[in-house]
Amino acid sequence: MISSFPKLLSATVITLKLLSASLIIGLFVGLLFAILRLNKNIFINKFAYGYSYLFRGTPLLVQIFIIYYGLGNLIGNNEFLKSSLLWTVLKEPYWCAIIAFALNTGAYTSEILRSAFQTIKPGMIEAGKSLGITSKIIFYKIQIPIAIRQSLPAYGNEIILMLKGTSLASTVTLMDLTGVAKYIVSTTFKPIEVFIIAGSIYLFMTFVIHNLIKYLEKKYSFQ
Amino acid sequence: MNMFKKTIFSVLASLLIIGNVYADKIRIGTEGAYPPWNSKDASGKLIGFEVELAWTLCRYMEKQCVIVEQDWDGMIPALVMRKFDAIMAGMSITDERKKTITFSQGYADEVASLAVMKGSSLEGLDTPEGINLSLGGSDVTKALKTLTGALAGKTVCVQTATIHQNFLDSGDVGKVDVRTYKTQDEVNLDLASGRCDAALAAAVAFTDYAEKSGKSVVLTGPTFSGGAFGNGVGVGLRQAGDDAIGKRDAELLKAFNKAINKARKNGDISRIATKWFGFDASM
Fold first, then answer.
1. Residue B125 above 50 pLDDT?
2. Interface test with B, best of A168, A173, A175, A176 (most B CBs within 10 A)
3. What does the pLDDT average to over B139-167?
4. pTM of the predicted protein model
5. ipTM for the complex shown
6. DSSP 3-state of B48
7. What region, left, alpha or beta, does residue B180 occupy, with left being phi > 0 and alpha being psi -120 to 50 degrees?
8. Hey, what domains does chain A have and what are their CATH numbers?
9. Contact A189 B100 (CB under 8 A)
10. Per-residue b/e over A88-111, b at no fewer than 16 CB within 10 Å?
11. N or C: which end of chain B has fewer CB within 10 A?
């Protein structure tokens, strides 16, 4: 069973790539939609709410399948769309997975950030205003940093959930940690040993993420 | 309270009885996603060549059976862990699998083939019609060479943990970008959408899909048998052990072999095979 360890480790690299790519894109998507959620315009507001409702209300597996097989079937059978740039991206399982993960984590992140924005006390913004700081700078220098700090615990949770979510990439042919573990099981027929090793690798990654977030929480604590 | 206890007791007792009834039945595992070998109809009922054959064999063994559904990639682990007692899932008899489980005699044999979409550059490869990897010879060498050239840099899709994946991984056709899927349905979908340049599976799996979906999937290259493709499809069973349960497994192997003999002699296997495959795939 030790012989399967290097294979699992190299597959962990794919898992980490998927995780980091989707978290980075998801953070920007989440921030954008959190700001839209706070917009006074009812259409913009409802649109942002609809997005988060849709992606938080459906299973990630279904989302991946719709993007990979659903769109794949739609575009792959259409000559015009097939020659477009869209297909160059969606043809690759890697991009399909990243798009699905990023949109999913983006929806959760937008909710986390929105509630963080709403916890900012009006006094802090007023303090900025009374010092003559423009509202743009107040937003970038006061609201966003505070919101990020406030959202750290919940966001740490989201990172861990997303780490485990990446295991679904194996359903669209990607050989991530879970995919390779399944492959090894299917050739060695030893599910317990292989899945315990794979599980331990996930656990270790969670341990690192958990402590990193804890460190950041401490570092940026208000006390 | 007494009433309550009585109810609990009778429920538990009935559960035990049900458990015993099940213990007496032969549980046969199948995938239900590899037509025409085994699949499901619109209502979710298991159908196909092996489902019908399983009922026939059970009749000859004079045993009661249940057919259990199991994902392909967990098929052998599930058998070993006694989730069921026998596999009938289009599983070819190969030396690699024999390290973990045992097989009855083969009941059907069917060739594998590459498939592409009509109009693909891989259509109409210049190879012999069929090659047997166990026999070898100049025909086989030449065909493999043609395939190695044609498939270089191409994406070939297969179902995971199949003889088809083993063949592509073996390096007989050079370095191919192999993409693996959980089910054959998903392979078919990605072949049709163009994500796969070619796919490898049982030839009937493709002709069945082409017929049902209306997609222009065509076979190309030689049909494969022997070598990595194994020696026909048989019933997968646990290797016999020395204890009481192990002995029961050994008896089950004998019973299946006897039932297959009878079914073959009476023409049942050919009849069912012709019904589902369109030709006589029995062996």
1. yes
2. A173
3. 93
4. 0.84
5. 0.80
6. coil
7. beta
8. 18-171 (1.10.3720.10)
9. yes
10. eebbebbebbbbbbbbbbbbbbbb
11. N
